[in-house]
Every structure is written in C-alpha cells, then in structure tokens.
Task: structure prediction
Amino acid sequence: MESSLSCRSVEFRPGAVVLFKARLKATGLVRCAGIPTPGFLPGASVKWGGAQMKRTGIAVFICAILFLHGCGPAPLTAQEEVERKNAAFEEIVATSVRAAMLDPGSTELRFESVFPDEQVACGKTNSKNAFGGYVGFSGFSYDKGIVWFETSNQEKWLAGLRKCTDAYLNETLAKNRVIVEELKRSSVKSPQMEQSIKSLEADIQKIERTAAERRQ
Result:
C-alpha cells in the first residue's frame, strides 16, 4: 500500500545536520531521483519520522544532492514557454473583454491571434443581452489595455485587426529567417534542403513586400 513519508533531516557524522523538506512517495523501497534514499545506503545516520538508521555520511551527501536536483521542476521547453506566456496574456485580455459586457459571467471568447510582446490580440466574443439571450459572436480587438468591439466602434476594431495582422507578419518573418539561418549552418546538405531554403527565402520576400505595402 502506497504511503507518504516526510524527509525531515539527514545526520552526518560526527553530528552536522542538513535539512531538506520534501514529500516522498514510498512503495516498499523509498527512492529519490531513481536512486535509493539515504536511509537505504550503507553507513548513514538518517531519521525518517523518528526511526533512525546508520549509514555512511558521504553516501548521504551524494544522495541528498541527487534528491534535491532530481526532484526539482523540469525546465520548460521553448514551445511550453510560449504557450504559458500566451495563456497568461489571454487571461488578461479575457478579463478586459468580460468587464465591458452586460453579463460578464456569460461571456464566451474565441481567440484568433495573441501577441503578448506587442500587447495585441484579436478574436470573437458572445454574451447575453438584457433579455437573457445570446446575441451571437462578433469581433473584438485588444490593443495595449483597450478593447474595441466590431458592434460598437468598427473603425477602432479594424485598426486593432490591422495590428494583429502586422504582428503576425513580423512573427512569421522572424521565424522564417531563423529557420533559413539554421538550414544554412547545417553540415548536412542535400537538394531537398537547398530547395527548402529557396522556398523560405521566397516567402520571406513576399512577406517583406506585404509588410512594406501595409506601411504605406
């Protein structure tokens, strides 16, 4: 039967004590980071909830380090970091959108694009009216703390949509440039890779022309 043990202290001979707080799941042999915990290594002095065992201090020190290192949170990947950042920004935008609604609790949102670095977002929203019925989805745009709605200020809403489009073009341009540079630095060369590079470079030129036209 699985039980939960609290690791309270590891005693080093001749008496130094290292404290580390952690909750361990024990099923028979308790383990930390895939290695037996200090209490099961030969020669250390370890207390588990009052029970004392004698084992070596060096082995305890090694396992304590491995335990603290192995049980820490794994670093986020680049994609996970982007998703976390986008989710946090979506919550900020959703709060602003709901605050403008007659019935905030009934508000539904569909995000179409979010750009936390530029502080812009676009999507559609639906909410209940004074009669308790949903009015249907319509567009919204968020620009640095201000929300514009398709149904109330179409000009400002469209301006927000243009900022979302510009942000998308800039993001795509930056990603394509990075990919091209990585492909060019690669030690592996092939006709298919050369074709991919040419295709991406053509896309980059198209995006650059589109962005330039939009700025005029």
